[in-house]
Amino acid sequence: MRAGFVAGGLMALMDAGINSFDYGLAVSASVPSLAYFKAGQRRDMEWVWRHELDTAYLVQYKNYPAASLALSEDRPILNIDYLVDEVFQKKYPLSRKQLQENPMQALFAATDLKQRELTLFSADHPDIYSVFKAAMAVPGCYLGTVRVDQQECVDGGLINFLPLDRLLRFPVDRVLVFLTRPLGTGHMLPGFLEKGLFYRFFAKNEWMFAKLQETEQNYTQTVSTLQTHCEQQPDRVMIIAPEKRLPVRFISRNKKRINRTIDIGYEQVREQEDAIRKFLQARSALRHDSGA
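Above: the chain sequence. Below: its structure as tokens.
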């Protein structure tokens, strides 16, 4: 639910007419938001975040015992199948035409369980809704894997919360980064609730918990590197992050907290709109001077 901050920020960019990016890369719950951003479906993005995520259809606390004790694979605490099949695909379907018209290359991260590595899918993927499921299949909350292109996948956040290294493999001259944690935030390893939900996956994949610890360490190192770049090369990296911990952390049915999280992201981008515009205009000038 922290990804509501990113959704709010993206909506603010759209309202400001700041939507010309060459590449976009999203992880976990920010994947559908990036897809709606690329398609220009700002209203759909907002309606999903404000009206569809706080329901008992999606967040099913009653299933916690079954999910954590591995009594049933049909009773998830986070019903991603409902979210994708009913909400994204039927109520607020993506416009394929608008996705194709935007030249931005959108990339969606997921974890390939067999290879134990991050894999990226394009917004042009013919089965975009399965990609959504794969990207958001949080181990334990979603009681299975999602098959995409012969890969068994779960949430990309298991492997990498902030895959900056993958983005930098493309010809980018600067990066605008959205974080859902305040700068300087320490490790956020799974709490009691999360551990209970993850137990079933850990029992079958013992490497996962160690991987989560490694992922947290890598995230901290990447953010530190980004901050250094911001200080030394402010024309190359810009970070949008909440000033303090967001009202929601993991999953929630608290509509007020979810909406406040969205509002914080929106307000923060609007407050920095001039700085963001200047940052991106400098990029355009740099490209023109270099003949790129």
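The longest strand covers residues 105-112.
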